[in-house]
Automatic annotation (TrEMBL):
Organism: Nicotiana attenuata (Coyote tobacco)
InterPro entries, per database record: CAT-like_dom_sf, Sec_Metabolite_Acyltrans
SUPFAM superfamilies: CoA-dependent acyltransferases
GO molecular function, one term: acyltransferase activity
UniProt keyword annotation of Transcription present: no
Keyword Ribonucleoprotein in annotation: no
Highest taxon, organism lineage: Eukaryota
Keywords annotated in UniProt: Acyltransferase, Transferase
Gene3D superfamilies: Chloramphenicol acetyltransferase-like domain (3.30.559.10)
Protein name: Bahd acyltransferase dcr
Length: 485
């Protein structure tokens, strides 16, 4: 008998999905990047899709079968956490299975999910394991998939233990799940389960009685909104940050602008003849050379430009005294930073959080380029040596990750616009939108998604105190780059 669990969503059924083949993978020890996540919520991410051209009954049968096949490729996600007598935490690949939930919200339309300014509260109900702390993976499945019927669509949401998986691993799982659902016989991106890097440590994390707790308030009033930035807007912002005006939106020399600037120059060569093409070719070569020099000295990426824009606008909206120290924290992927490098599809967490500090006065008195340069410097120096230093620092004081906005002046950027979030075609088309649940959200938590149209477009999922969000929405420097508001 269906039971109503929440105001918007009705739970229809729940079952356990087991791998299609038994696992031969040994227990996987949690790393120094995994263990700090035991105090964080399960990651909740999912896709909004149009209704498939077949029945919901057939869809559920198809998804259950393909999830079983996917768990065979990702055996840790069908396992449980275990702690041995020495205090080490492992993933036991014991084929205990993952949860599969079927729910209905047939009074909600696709437009109700994506059409409002703020992300509506009912989106949070498209995920299970709501506010479940990752340490609870000792007693609960490490993965749950919830399929929610809508009036004219379907939402496929994944809740995954954050001590087991980061964004890179999550989207590799989700994409593989989609591939197998649409009938692919051989998956294209095989995960790597090796545990032989510096991230695997002899240090023991002491867990308090009853398990760790999240380190931020669960009851603070918040607003959540998606801000979209088109490819053209992102390129314009990058140009502004790099003080570079010689390039068009396709990243090519802007010939019209170049000719306009040089229109008063004589078109003469050594024999006295005027040759526009010769002049133009030489001018382009000169400009390209100048552009290379500028780019070599600047090296400010589009994403760093966007982060700097947000840092300035939120700092303005929070109305700090000039002496107030602000923090912009960015999660970085360490797979390619370590030497020797980890496999690009290394399964687990391989992320570190890089803080950049600046007073509110410095953030607002300097220009966008200065703010972006502070972020750029910290990302550039986070090499193999720095990754290893972070590991050593953690080993000297093993602790869970303190997630939150402790002094009211922090921004924490997670996820990545490089993640292939829109590659999840389950057989009837790509997602209309990507959304997340209530997990790990507090004032100042930002998540970066690729824009659905691709090409370098970016969506920022921004969570702020209501009065700060009001200030951000009225900030002209920020809003001039936002698309379609």
């Amino acid at each position: 008998m269906p039971c109503s669990t929440m105001e918007a969503v009705t739970l229809l059924s729940k079952c356990t999905i087991f791998p299609s083949q038994k696992s031969s993978l040994s227990d996987l020890k949690l790393s120094v990047s995994d263990l700090p996540m035991l105090s964080t919520h399960y990651i909740q991410k999912g896709g909004l899709f149009t209704r498939p051209p077949f029945s919901i009954t057939d869809l559920l049968s198809l998804l259950k079968r393909s999830l079983s096949q996917t768990l065979t490729q990702f055996p840790p996600l069908a396992g449980r956490l275990v702690t041995d007598s020495d205090g080490y935490v492992y993933i036991s690949c014991n084929d205990a299975g993952a949860d599969f939930i079927h729910a209905a919200a047939t009074h909600i339309f696709v437009r109700d999910v994506i059409g409002s300014i703020d992300v509506p509260d009912h989106v949070k109900e498209f995920f299970t394991f709501d506010r479940t702390v990752s340490y609870q993976g000792h007693f609960n499945p490490l993965l749950a998939v919830q399929v929610t019927e809508l009036a004219d669509g379907v939402f496929i949401g994944c809740s995954v233990n954050h001590a087991v998986i980061d964004g890179t691993s999550l989207w590799n799982f989700f994409n593989t799940f989609a591939e197998l659902t649409r009938g692919v016989k051989r998956i294209t991106r095989q995960p790597d389960f090796s545990r032989d890097s510096v991230l695997i440590s002899p240090a023991v994390l002491k867990i308090p009685a009853g398990g760790p707790k999240v380190t931020f308030s669960l009851d603070a009033p918040l607003r959540e909104r998606i801000f979209s930035f088109s490819r053209e807007s992102i390129l314009r912002l990058k140009d502004k940050t790099n003080n570079n005006h010689k390039w068009n939106v396709d990243g090519e020399i802007d010939i019209a602008e170049l000719m306009g600037k040089q229109s008063n120059d004589p078109f003469k060569i050594s024999d006295g003849k005027v040759t526009t093409l010769t002049w133009l070719r030489n001018a382009v070569r000169k400009t390209e050379a100048e552009g290379i020099t500028e780019n070599q000295t600047a090296e400010i990426s589009s994403f760093q430009s966007l982060c700097a824009l947000l840092w300035r606008a939120v700092t303005r909206a929070r109305k700090f005294h000039a002496s107030k120290m602000t923090t912009f924290r960015m999660a970085v992927n360490c797979r390619h930073r370590l030497q020797p490098k980890l496999h690009p599809l290394y399964f687990g967490n391989a992320i570190q959080s890089i803080p950049t500090y600046a007073s509110a006065g410095d953030v607002l008195s300097h220009d966008l380029r200065w703010c972006a340069e502070q972020l750029n410097k910290n990302v550039k120096v986070h090499d193999n040596d720095m990754v290893r230093k972070y590991v050593e620092d953690w080993e000297s004081d093993p602790r869970c990750f303190p997630l939150g906005n402790f002094d009211g002046a922090m921004l924490t950027m997670g996820s990545s616009p490089r993640f292939p979030m829109y590659d999840n075609d389950f057989g009837w088309g790509r997602p209309i939108a990507v959304r997340s649940g209530r997990a790990n959200k507090f004032d100042g938590k930002i998540s970066a998604f690729p824009g659905r149209e691709g090409g370098g477009s970016v969506d920022l999922e921004v969570v702020l105190a209501p009065e700060t969000m009001d200030g951000l929405e009225s900030d002209p420097e920020f809003m001039q780059f936002v698309t379609g508001y």
